[in-house]
Design a protein that fits this description.
The chain contains 15 helices and 35 strands. Helix 3 runs parallel beside helix 4. The chain is globular. The relative contact order is 0.09.
Amino acid sequence: MEIRNIAIIAHVDHGKTTLVDELLKQSGAFRENQATSERMMDSNDLERERGITILAKATSVEWKGTRINIVDTPGHADFGGEVERILSMVDGVVLLVDAAEGPMPQTKFVTSKALALGLRPIVVLNKVDKPDAEPDRALDEVFDLFANLGADDDQLDFPHMYASGRAGWADAELDGPRKDLQALFALIVNHVPKPKQLAHQDEDFKMLATTLGADPFLGRILTGRVEAGKLKAGATVQAISRIGQKIEQFRVSKILAFRGLGQTEIEEAVAGDIVSLAGMGKATVSDTICALAVDEPLESQPIDPPTITVTFGINDSPLAGRDGKKVQSRVIRDRLMKEAESNVAIKIADTPGGEAFEVSGRGELQMGVLIENMRREGFELSISRPQVIMREEDGVRMEPVEEVTIDVDDEYSGAVIEKITGTRKGDLAEMKPAGAGKTRIVAHVPSRGLIGYHGEFLTDTRGTGVLNRVFHGWTPHKGAIPGRRAGVLISMENGEAVAYALWNLEERGKMFVEPQEKVYEGMVIGEHARENDLEVNPLKGKKLTNVRASGTDDAVRLTPVSRLSLEQAIAYINDDELVEVTPNAIRLRKRHLDPHERKRAAKSA
């Protein structure tokens, strides 16, 4: 059977996972009466909730005697550690672009990686049946993007199709029959080259491990493309690291291949196919799995460096240990090490004292997803404000810069430009009308300037703006960037918040806590309307007398509280504050609590 290996690239919410659903259905991967769900490739709970792809996943379909292995790539640059390795497994890419929005920053990030590897793209203009679709403009923007990214003549001569993933059709012409995806299947088989590994079937077995998984019955599972030779289940192989160090020899207990959405056990893996192996004890991502006669590892893709670092510590607040069961630093460390093993974009380092750990990664979203997964597993953590990683080049201190693409209503563009080029120290790269009363702004802004900016941005644009960001490069340090302007309201007592007290505090600022919520000394319970921090008493009840006075016994009506999401809380805090994360709560608090005060607070809370 012939094989084609492709990756699907798209920006967040451009319809990639929905299109894969239709490819699976129309290829006959399911029975007529089989129960299926929407966005079947988004198997992770967080992926379903947020509507984004976080983990790269593979599937395969059969069409007229050809097996097409499809890899679903993450659409967000924060998960770029996945993207770089995944693209090394495929021979072609399908670039999915929203016909209304055109190519977006995350598309640019993944596409640049694909073009650098020499992969030939197929462009699919999705959602052309929407009223605001402009497929011709989007197609011109894709061509300009490829040219700017240094595509060669073959890559610039790309085929394109018009599609609606939700409706399940793709055609070469805009006014085609709009019936099914057969034209897209045919284009993939005819345009994407056969795996060049097929010519190396008679050599010794070699495979580059690109993703690491775990199975409760099989243990560690490494997935990758077979680069040369064949492998039978039960054979003994070895693992060699990127630098040529021999790690271990092991017997391959099972070989699994992707068939539809599931994995099926097969007897033999052949060159060119994407398979998963079980049986190893130490081998990990970027290692070469090969026959015992092989001495040299396969070349693996370099990984872009982390740009931010966050300190994960134990939760030492007075309310520690009430929600979660995993609270010790040893358990937190083991979990972080396990994450770093499978996710090469994350680096872990111990801090002096061993009570906290510095976790370096690509961005706030990647950190937010890791923390959210840990709190769902029963961990309690305290999280510091993200710090940008600097580096030295020829004695000059350099900092990371991100390319920010903003779509905003014309009336708010002035406020946005003032913020990103003024207080945030960004450089305006491009500004043009985007149609429908909107302006598109492209700017290069230091990563430091973007921490905590998203909330301000939504306020400035009345919630209508869309901001996308992607790592752009390094620039000399741009000096101090002001942080959050407003101060915070800090509880000076321990106990349960009282509605009457919160009602009286509303003129001081907006609240983060509700009545009957547990609070403690040093906990941040709201945002001050002024720039200074203010200690307040959220437990102060109304003094009761036996005299009733007209006008003083009004019912307490509280303004709804502002609840910060995990990413918002991490971006909101200042350097002297922490986010306390438990399975059931996200709280903010001041960093310093005297041990004696902490013990006293724990008793009264």
